[in-house]
């Protein structure tokens, strides 16, 4: 499955639109990332130099073919518990994998990679559309086993109220399961296996309750992070405030390895879920390019979008799916906004109006009460634009399994957050995050035309999105790049798209310092050659949710790492 992302708000949306060197309108979509546990053959011919090298070129990371690449004995001595990757098809994977179970192992891994000039990739849950948690060489540092969780009723550094501190390897579901006994919940991703403190929370972080409580970056009160020299720092509004600002929006795998987080917690709200479906009489995915008019189907879809700002102000948030001749909605209200009667009062007028558009059938809706809850941005103005219907029709992925996936996850607390974060500023006026998905090539540039003043959510955008620095970080990029240089001057951490990505480039299968740093339209190409590769049996190796492939490490390896770290 390949993806293009669009963020949409009240009218602010995020659309991921790839670059085109030949002025074509065609867009190449990018698939989901490899999972953190899917390690396979280390370096295939496709990612190796054309001939074995005796040493790495100046400014480049080592490959296993280099004479000064660490020996197996050196790896084992420096990093107890490190392992060659488990074979998985023919995919190019790092030479070694360390599945850290304690902070000392993380520190040792970062120091070893920096000292020996080893390509370092950091993996957690692996939910990255762009495969930035994977590399074809060097060391894969898997932090998915960093656990532990505790609840406090006061956090004196910045905020009074319930807070939760947890290891970075815990997922949204694991955290909420742990705090449920205290009658609390936290803001996390829609899919429970996503790790809250990983790239999700460090680049933005949207979810089912973000309209009510804010984005993931708005929840963080403190991070503990291992930086490029191996030091463990505490980053909050009082300690390392620049780093703390950068970690709340600058993206994961960039400034260091977050090993622990403290975030806000809230009393568990009651929830009401509204699930509706409305069909058109026939497929209507074409636009009359001569008259610039659209089918009635797209008029109905545009009308739905125009209602989102008002619905959101009344507590509505959730997800919707636009098919060739049908729209499905799964929306929620929480806390004082919940209740079936209130949900019907909000939705029935909207659904009846949609059903009155020519060619539309009446909607079917169901309502449920629950006692508890376990790549262009579009703003309100964009959602109300008379050009929205034609933009949606033009953006619809005319590809196999094409679909527009809508996320009404902005508005509300996302707009009014008083938190000082580095997240893309377009989020603060966005209501809808709209994602185009499909297998093949398609173009969603009409949404960029509709919302040129917006941006794209970097975690779910195309790697070929033009104007990548501005679209992903807006005016925050320059300061983020300065902080990156301060905390990681030698580029131990590198992802693309990412802060400072253009300071490096891939040459003959290895990561090297750029000979010339240029302000390019498109982010540098990744060295991850696995993008788009499928297993011979048809298994989608870039699925967001594959199973674990590596065995658990016992605590003895962690103690050995801690002892070795102390000696150094």
Word description of this protein:
This protein is α+β, with helices and mostly antiparallel strands. Among the domains are: 2-16 and 270-371 and 375-466, 3-Layer(aba) Sandwich (Vanillyl-alcohol Oxidase, Chain A, domain 3); 149-268 and 473-484, Uridine Diphospho-n-acetylenolpyruvylglucosamine Reductase, domain 3. The chain is built from 15 helices and 25 strands. Strands 1, 2, 3, 4, 15, 18, 19, 20, 21, 22 and 23 form an 11-stranded antiparallel sheet that branches. Strands 8-9-13-11-12 form a 5-stranded antiparallel sheet. Strands 5-7-6 form a 3-stranded parallel sheet, covered by helices on one side. Strand 18 and strand 19 (326-334) form a beta hairpin.
Record the SSE blueprint:
Layout: E1 2-5, E2 7-8, E3 11-14, E4 30-31, H1 72-78, E5 96-99, H2 103-115, E6 120-123, E7 139-142, E8 149-155, E9 159-167, H3 172-179, E10 184-185, H4 196-203, H5 210-213, E11 220-226, E12 232-235, H6 241-247, E13 257-264, E14 266-267, E15 271-279, E16 287-288, E17 293-294, H7 296-313, E18 317-322, E19 326-334, H8 340-355, E20 364-370, E21 376-379, H9 380-383, H10 388-395, E22 400-408, H11 412-416, E23 430-439, H12 445-450, H13 468-473, H14 477-487, E24 504-507, E25 510-513, H15 555-567
Helix pairs in contact: 2-15, 7-8, 7-10
List keywords for this structure.
568 residues; alpha+beta; Vanillyl-alcohol Oxidase, Chain A, domain 3; Uridine Diphospho-n-acetylenolpyruvylglucosamine Reductase, domain 3; 24% helix; disordered N terminus
């Amino acid at each position: 499955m390949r993806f293009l992302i669009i963020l949409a708000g009240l009218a602010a949306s995020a659309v991921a639109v790839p670059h085109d060197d030949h002025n074509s309108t065609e867009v190449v979509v990018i698939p989901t990332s490899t999972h953190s546990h899917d390690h396979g053959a280390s370096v295939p011919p496709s990612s190796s130099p054309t001939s074995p090298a005796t040493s790495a070129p100046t400014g480049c990371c080592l490959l296993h073919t280099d004479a000064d690449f660490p020996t197996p004995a050196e790896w084992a001595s420096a990093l107890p518990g490190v392992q060659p990757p488990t074979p998985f098809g023919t995919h190019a994977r790092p030479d070694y994998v360390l599945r850290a179970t304690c902070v000392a192992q993380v520190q040792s891994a970062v120091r070893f990679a920096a000292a020996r000039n080893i390509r370092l990739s950091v993996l957690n849950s692996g939910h990255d559309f762009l495969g930035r948690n994977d590399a074809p060489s060097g060391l894969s540092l898997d932090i998915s086993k960093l656990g532990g969780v505790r609840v406090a009723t006061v956090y004196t550094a910045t905020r009074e109220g319930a807070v939760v501190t947890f290891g970075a390897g815990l997922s949204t579901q694991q955290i909420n399961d742990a705090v449920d006994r205290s009658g609390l919940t936290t803001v996390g991703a829609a899919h429970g296996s996503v790790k809250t403190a990983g790239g999700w929370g460090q680049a933005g972080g949207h979810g089912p309750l973000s309209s009510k409580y804010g984005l993931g970056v708005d929840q963080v009160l403190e991070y503990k992070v291992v930086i490029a020299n191996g030091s463990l720092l505490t980053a909050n509004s009082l300690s390392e405030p620049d780093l703390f600002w950068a970690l709340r929006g600058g993206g994961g795998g960039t400034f260091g390895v977050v090993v622990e987080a403290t975030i806000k917690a809230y009393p568990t709200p009651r929830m009401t879920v509204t699930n509706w479906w409305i069909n058109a009489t026939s497929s209507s995915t074409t636009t009359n390019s001569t008259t610039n008019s659209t089918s009635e189907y797209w008029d109905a879809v545009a009308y739905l979008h125009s209602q989102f700002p008002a619905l959101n102000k009344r507590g509505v948030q959730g997800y919707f799916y636009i098919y060739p001749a049908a729209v499905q909605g799964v929306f929620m209200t929480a806390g004082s906004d919940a209740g079936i009667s209130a949900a019907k009062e909000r939705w029935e007028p909207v659904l009846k109006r949609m059903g009155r558009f020519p060619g539309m059938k009446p909607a079917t809706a169901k309502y449920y009460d629950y006692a508890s809850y376990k790549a262009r941005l579009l703003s309100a103005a964009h959602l109300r634009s008379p050009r929205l219907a034609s933009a949606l029709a033009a953006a619809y992925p005319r590809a196999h399994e094409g679909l527009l996936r809508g996320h009404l996850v902005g508005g509300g607390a996302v707009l009014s957050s008083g938190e000082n974060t580095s997240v893309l500023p377009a989020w603060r006026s966005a209501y809808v995050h709209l994602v185009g998905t499909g297998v093949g090539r398609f173009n969603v540039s009409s949404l960029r035309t509709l919302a040129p003043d917006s941006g794209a959510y970097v975690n779910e955008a195309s790697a070929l999105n033009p104007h990548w620095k501005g679209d992903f970080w807006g005016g925050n990029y320059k300061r983020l790049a300065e902080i990156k240089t301060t905390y990681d001057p030698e580029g131990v951490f590198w992802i693309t798209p990412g802060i400072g990505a253009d300071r490096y480039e891939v040459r003959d299968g290895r990561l090297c310092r750029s000979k010339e740093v240029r302000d390019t339209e498109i982010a540098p190409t990744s060295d991850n050659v696995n993008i788009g590769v499928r297993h011979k049996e048809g298994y989608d190796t870039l699925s967001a949710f594959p199973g674990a492939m590596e065995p658990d490490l016992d605590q003895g390896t962690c103690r050995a790492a801690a002892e070795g770290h102390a000696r150094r």
